[in-house]
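Support reply, case 0932

Customer input (verbatim):
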Amino acid sequence: MKVKDVIEYILEIAPFKDDFGEIPKDDAIVFGDGNTEVQGIGVTWSPTVNVLKKAEKEKLNLIVTHEFLFWGYSETVWFNSGKDIMGKRPNALRHKILTENNMVVYNTHKNWDAAPGWGMCDAFPDLLGFEEEINRGRFIRVHKIEPTSVLHLAEIIKQKMKIPVIRIAGDLQKKVSKIATAVGGLGQIYGIAEEPYKLGAEVLVFGEVVDYAVRYCVENGMAAIETSHVLSENPGVKNLANKLKKQFKETKVVFLDASFPFNHVI
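Our regenerated output:
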């Protein structure tokens, strides 16, 4: 079995839809050759140095990643960004592991997010125990639950995700029953709360979120709960790993956890 055979299957179960816009040029093999014979598959949120070291130890030569491989050049006035991509230390470390182990990296994103029933957008509310979907956008999901306070909801989410701390904005005692989820990095979009608000949500549960998006929630009368970018998307990563295991039974497939990166001082 070759790398291109695995990619063909992924695109079959997570197709690009017409309303996704243009397919990004880096939604492709970003390192290595599609004709490479697959010895083992690692499925991960991000191909960090630690993730690639795990893949090396497990003898996995195909990495399927949700996030980008190499840090790029930023054309900005705010800081000096180096144009030598491989001159950036994290990139050089990743490149060394990939080269020494003849690895291939396949990056795929939006189609994985929106894959019906098992992609990131559906897997996140599943993890949180939300069962009654009442509305949806392209990537936003809205579920109905039994009325509870924002604070109690946050405590439940914290337990479900096994996360040490989460951030909450808005009225903590407000009773809510219509919960929107914005998985992963959707909260990095300043105005993302506009759609959940129009879809009737009373609280928006984010993966990762910026200050502006939180304020948009609060000024719309909604509460905001931030969890974690990686932990909110890991359920979708695990789902793909399980699908690949079932499809390619003779091939070793491993979920490679990119891990929650923070410690906290309270």
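We compared this against your earlier run and they match. Two observations from our side: The chain has nine helices and eleven strands. The first helix runs from residue 3 to 13. Please reopen the case if you see a mismatch on your end.
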